[in-house]
Amino acid sequence: MSGWVIGVVRGVVMCAVLAVCATSLGAQQTIVLTNGDRLSGTVTRIEAGRWVFRFGTGEAKIPPGGIAAFTAPAPIGVRFADSTIAAVTFQPSDDLLLATFLDGSTRLVPPTEIEAIGRPDNLDALRPIRIGIFSPLGMFWGASGSVGFSDKSGNSRARGISGDLEIQRRSPRDRITLGGGINREFRQNDEGDLVTAVAKYYASLRFDLYFLPRFFAFAATLQERDRFQDIDLRSNYTAGFGFQFIGTRSTDIRLSVSSGIRVESFVDNGRSTAAVLNSSWDVKERLGPFTFDWKIAWTPDIQDLGDYRARSNATLTAAVYAGLGFRVGLLNEYNSRPRPGVEKHDMLFTTTLAYTVGAMR
User: Fold this and answer.
1) Is the pLDDT confidence value at 18 over 60?
2) In sequence order, which residues have a C-beta less than 8 Å from that of residue 4 and are 6 or more positions away?
3) Distance, CA of 18 to CA of 13 (rounded, Å)
4) Which domains, and CATH codes, for the chain?
């Protein structure tokens, strides 16, 4: 039989093996622990250096050093410590594992030399990811923007347009969030002329760095302008620490505590600078097609806790199609000591069309 025929037959056989084993991660596998316990089930992945082994209705995360033997009779995808990626079966061999490749070759390895496990028909997914500021772009970066209608009460009453944009990078080690928004509303005066009744703008930047799985340090700035609160520019600069209560794709709950300075320049002239404290809650919950996002912050003057600013921004987004959705928002702002002629409480209600792309979906 000619060489090319042999090659074709071998290729067909290998494809057939992979096709049969496309669901091999669901095949029965066995792990024997160093303490003698034996588990039968399926190894699904390696996460944070631990083997995630699913058995029955339970799941165990096992360090490689705790594995005495491992048996996988059907091929699974593996990346070894030397960067070799292949579909292999495993049998125990003394204190090592005997890996058998699809071409019949074998290799003895300890469990500690296995860096990743996955499907045998998708070996590209096992390649290591090089993480940079802008890569992988689709995995860590995302954006969400909206534009629509707003209804204002408090220091002014009017209707108009509202828009906002948030860009975020979120990786296991850091988080960068850039945001901005604008609210412009108009009303008719006694003469029937259309006049500006709301002119609110804000921009924000925050950088979080996780030094433990749940603890992080951060620095942030929030820049605000609001003509009808007599704020030409309010600049907040803070830095501090935070705790991540829950950090999954569907639930994100964080507490942050910081200190810094607040500088306020007023429309009718004048300027105020204060050292401030800041505590904030960030809650984001995804439930089916709905996403609830609530950010609340309390910022008092360190020397006079009775002089504070409070800000609550809550939105509810309903997904309509792909990244397109319908969003309603409620922004509440409270200034315990506003400028003369300015009310303490300001509330803004918005209804907008939103579009979300990337990792924020």
Assistant:
1) no
2) none
3) 9
4) 3-126 (no CATH), 137-358 (2.40.160.40)
Structure tokens at 97: 């594992």
HEC letters along 229-255 = HCEEEEEEEEEEEEEEEEECCCEEEEE
Average model confidence (pLDDT) for the chain?
Answer: 86
Is the pLDDT confidence value at 8 over 60? no
267 contacts 227 by C-beta, under 8 angstroms = yes
- pLDDT of residue 154 exceeding 80, the answer is no
Distance CA 126, CA 64 (A): 18
Under the banding of pLDDT at 50, 70 and 90, the label for residue 292 is very high
The per-residue b/e assignment along 56-78, b for 16 or more CB within 10 angstroms, e otherwise, is: eeeebebebeebbbbbbebbbbb
Residue located via tokens 């067909």:
12
- The predicted pLDDT at position 94 comes to 86
- Among 269, 264, 261, 223, which Cα is nearest to 240's? 261
7 membership: H or E segment, kind and range: helix 3-20
Nearest to 140 by CA among 130, 150, 151: 130
The pLDDT score that the predictor gives to residue 135 is 64
End-to-end distance of the chain based on CA atoms, in angstroms? 55
DSSP class of residue 343 equals -
Peptide bond into 64 cis (omega under 30): no
Alpha-carbon gap, residue 295 to 105, rounded angstroms? 57
Smallest Cα–Cα separation from 211: which of 233, 185, 189, 243?
243
Integer Cα distance of 294 and 283 in angstroms:
5
Instruction: Flag whether pLDDT at 92 surpasses 60.
Output: yes
Rg of the chain over all Cα atoms, to the nearest angstrom: 28
Beta-sheet strands, E only, within 171-213: 174-188, 194-210
Beta-carbon contacts of residue 305 (< 8 Å; ≥ 6 apart): none
**pLDDT over 50 (residue 271):** yes
pLDDT digits (tens, 9 = 90+) for 194-220: 677 778 899 999 999 999 989 999 999
pLDDT higher than 80, residue 193: no
Alpha-carbon span 106 to 309, nearest angstrom: 67
